[in-house]
Every structure is written in C-alpha cells, then in structure tokens.
Design goal:
The chain is an alpha+beta fold. Helix content is 31%, strand content 23%.
Amino acid sequence: MSMDRYLFTSESVSMGHPDKVSDQISDTILDHCLKVDPYSRVACETLVTTDLVVVAGEITTNADLSKATVDHLVRSTIREIGYVDPRIGFAADTCKIESHLHAQSGDIAMGVDTGGAGDQGMMFGFACDETHTLMPLPIHLAHRLVENQARLRKNGELTWLRPDAKSQVTVEYNADGTPNRIHTIVLSTQHDESVIVRRDGKDYFSNEARQLIIDKLILPTLKAERSDLIEGKGKLTMITPDMKVDPTDESIIACHINPTGCFLQGGPHGDCGLTGRKIIVDTYGGRGRHGGGAFSGKDPTKVDRSAAYMARYIAKNVVAAGLASQCEVQLSYAIGYPDPINIWVSTYGTAAQGLQDREIATLIGKHFKLTPRGIIETLDLRRPIYKETSRHGHFGRELTTFTWERTDKAAALRAAALGTGSLPGRTAATAKL
C-alpha cells in the first residue's frame, strides 16, 4: 500500500444478531402502538438469551399491550427473522416471554405535551459523496453484505445459512479521501452441520462453503455497489484461519470467512442481546460522531431518535445540494424545551468555494423545522415504520418510508447559498456549487 493512502473499517450485523433481534422486537412493539395510537409514548427495551425474551419499559398508549398481544408480537418477529428451530437454543414457538411494561413518567410528559424534547442530549447526522446513497462506503458495503446474507438464507439459495451473521469491510483511501480499492472483507455467518468437515478431531467450516460465500455473496455485492473498486484492484482471495496475510499485498482482496473456524452456536443462545447496543452499526460505522442515544424502541418525541434522523436529513441535503462533499451536523436539546440549543456544522474543509460552515448552519436554521414537533411533521414520524429501520441500517436505504433519506431540500439550499432564485450550472466563481 502506498504511504499516502490509509485504511478505514466499518462493520454491520445481520437481522439475526442477538442485539438486532432485541432491536426488532422493541420496534415491533413501537409500531403496534403507533398503528393504533399515533401519539403513543414508547420507551421499550428488550433482552434476549437462551430460550428467553424479556420486554420492559415505559409505554403510554391506547393500544392493547396485554400479555397475549405482547407474546404474539414477539413470537411473530422472531419467526420472521428466522429462528424457528428449537434445537439451536432459541425459537419463536418455544422461548419463554416475560413482559414488564408500565406507564411513562408524568414528569416527562409535562414537558413533552407542550412540544418540548423528550430528553436532553446531542444528536449527529452525516453524509458524504462516496456512494449513491451519500453514506460512507465501508458501512454501506457492510450493510449490503448482511442484507444479502439474509436474502440468500431466506430464498433457500444457501440452505445451510442460519440467522446470525456479522460483516466487516476495510476500504483503502487515497490521500484526498477518495476510495481507491476494497482492501479486506470479513464475514462470519452462523451455519448448520452440513458444511462442517472434521480434521484432527475438531469441527471446521469447509473451504467449499467459504468459496460459495465469496461467489454468491461477497463478489455479487461488491460488483453491484462498486465494481470499479475491485476490477483490476486485486483478486478476491479466500483466507483460511491458518493462513498469514501480508496487509500490503495489493494483488489480493482478502476475504476472511468464519475466521474462528466454525460458527455453529450463535444467535441469542450464543450471546445475550440487548436493545440499543449496536449504535455505531445503526449510524455511520464510525465515520462521523454519535451522540450516544440508541434509536430502537423509542417513539419520535424522543430526540435521541427523531433528531438523529433529522440531522441525517439535513446533512444529506447539504451534500446533495453540492454545498460540500461531506457534512456533519450536530443538534442538541434540553428536556421539555422545544428549540435546539445549538446547530453545529462541519464540512471538513470540503465546502464549496466561498462558503463557510457557519453560513451553512445559518441556512439550516432557516430551511428546516428543528423543534420536536417540526421534526415529526417534516419527516412524518408518527407512523408504524420502525421495525424495518432496526435491521440493515437506519440510514442509506432507499425506502419510501425512510423520509429522512429524501433530498427534497437540496434545490432550495443550493439556490439560497448562491443568492439566487434558480439553480445555475457550474462556474469558476461557484466552484463545487
């Protein structure tokens, strides 16, 4: 690798990862409440482990949350994910379910009822022009890998796949921050006994199965997203657990598949899962900051979630408008108070010529409604749309329900930045604009 290049890595986890199982259960309960009562106040947490689901939290709603209803919601979610075989220690029809839900604090409701934020805190949004979704490339590819792992599992193309999986993508960047090539792929996927080989008295994931993962999952995913970063940039090469790899070897794209050697025991039986434990996976894979608040299980009056969605919406529109090639936005709030305490913007030196970050922050304040009520109305957040967010990423997915991925404010931002009522083409005076 050239000395003026650098590496950056992001990871994602599949819908069957125990933490994501918890997220999906919490958001399923949220969606159930919002479908019946759009003004539901929900803060729902879930724990999953061997043959056990514990749901707890504070919920004020007109929706039915009887034991039978919660039981049905939880089991249907687990079944949809793919945990249906009791032999692997966690299954929809056999796990025990405990529900410990109660009403939200009246002290919090006092401030929220008048349009204030449901909590204090700071939220960040990020966008960059590395991908068509304006997401950083490593996390975008990592999400697509686990999304396609679930697709291959569910459509029966690779019948031996099980729900739990993790991906990791390392991208080699040029000194100017542009991607040069895919450097390394790591993919760990739970599997059944049919792809096990026995050596020296131990069980190992077979190399034939590894090659199938490369041929049917990794290569098609990379080609579909950024074929330019793999063609002529090194051969996808299977790295077995006993192999040594030279990280400077540019003739290969190293593919580490089940590098521990075997992944039979997984899911909630292999590792306890909790709601909100994958906050970096849920956002930008380590690119850009994170305010610390988790998303899943929270209704949109909680700015941990809604303001993070708005910050992404803002950052994406700034980049789509050509005001910068990357943009990070921070919003902060005080509990019970409607207006943000601050609006902070950094374009990391990529702003269009003559445009300052503080000027972009001023434009944001003029073009976006940033009170909790304004955010909810702008993004239409009082809808049962959240279960889908809790798998394969909250950002960078082109779904019509993900309103924070729209770029409908880009034209207005661009026109305002240029000080005109129209959208001129490139000129020497407007640089990137």
